[in-house]
Amino acid sequence: MSASKISRDHEAWTVLHKFVERYVHFNDAEFRAWQSFFEIRTFDKKQSVISVGEQEEYINIVVSGLARKYANLERGEVTMQIAPEGHMIHAEWSFHKRVPSSVIVETIEPTTFIAISHKNWQALLDKHPKAEHMSRLFVTEMFIIKDRRYYDMVQKSTREVFLDYIKSHPHMLQRVPQKYLASYLNIQPETFSRLKHLLKTSGTKSI
Fold it and tell me: What is the per-residue pLDDT across 115-164, written as a single tens digit (0 to 9) for each?
């Protein structure tokens, strides 16, 4: 096994360990048992992870790189999620309902995932009660996050939405194409460009 693969594998298991520990605590033996259900997946830049019409077979956690989820609508592409390191991304409806995906997951950068297949996910839930507990906690958290994001979109001004995101994700302006960020934040491209320019020239207090 090459040194680069050993390093990549270690990084992947570290990311998985940190992700799971956010919800449940387990000992080394329990974590080793969990590891057998997961696999490492690698993708080049701008590579499709799941396309429209395919059935989602994986839950993916980003180890390194960056991915986005989007839908092709009549008005154009709408970015629904941008997932950096440590975040989960997949076509949820397709994965859980076992139906063709209506969204696309695509990498923005060369990306490595630590992933679990639908079959292994079901087996993990059946064999390890802590996985079931973690799943409930995670779903609850996702409901809260999505509800809060929707509330912010309708309650806050465009300026506030932009500044809140940049403050909490300071490196995304350098990593993510502007059109993806504008779409994700539901900001018109020309407005996003203006806010970005003001941010560079004046700082957040002057926007």
Answer: 999 999 999 999 998 999 999 998 899 889 888 888 888 889 999 999 99
108 close to 123: Cβ distance less than 8 angstroms = no
53 is written with which tokens? 């019409």
Beta-carbon-side half-sphere exposure of residue 139 (alpha carbons within 13 Å): 8
Token digits of residue 99: 């139906």
Selection from 52, 80, 53, 54 nearest residue 67 by Cα = 80
Asked whether the whole model's pTM tops 0.85, one would answer yes
Confidence category of residue 18, pLDDT binned at 50, 70, 90: very high
CA angle 84, 88, 93 (to 5 degrees): 130
Residue range 3-127, CATH number: 2.60.120.10
Among candidate residues 15, 68, 60, the one with its CA nearest the CA of residue 41: 60
Among 23-37, 58-72, 107-121, 143-157, where is mean pLDDT lowest? 143-157
